[in-house]
Amino acid sequence: MKISAEKHDYGGIEIGHVSSFHRTITREDGLRFSQFTGDRNPLHVNSDFGKESRFGDNIVHGMLLAGLFSTLVGMYCPGERSLYLSQTAQFRLPLFYGEEVEVRGTVTDKSDAIMIVTLKMEIYRGDDLIVVGEAKVKLTS
Fold it and tell me: What structural domains does the chain harbor?
């Protein structure tokens, strides 16, 4: 896991710039998320319930996945000195514990006067797009 944040300054960020990282989501990650947030929906944490569900197993909390967007913004692009302003997320497909994802952010717009960067945010399992959204991030001094 990345320990120090990248340090992109606003002028060095170009439209089309892509940053990404990979992460495997474990059942333990899901249990910790459940304990921290209080979201103990059995679809995510009860094995028997998951097996009986239409998914056939427990699925990862969508917001646990969306939380990885924060890692991308804070640690990769823009990285250090970034302030999250907004984030949208659409959950397209389920993710199961033990599966690896690629979290990807692509710079789609810049507002020079106020130093705000817009990123298309995506989470993939292999070639399958499972979460998509948009982030607006301000670079601070």
Answer: 11-25+60-139 (3.10.129.10)
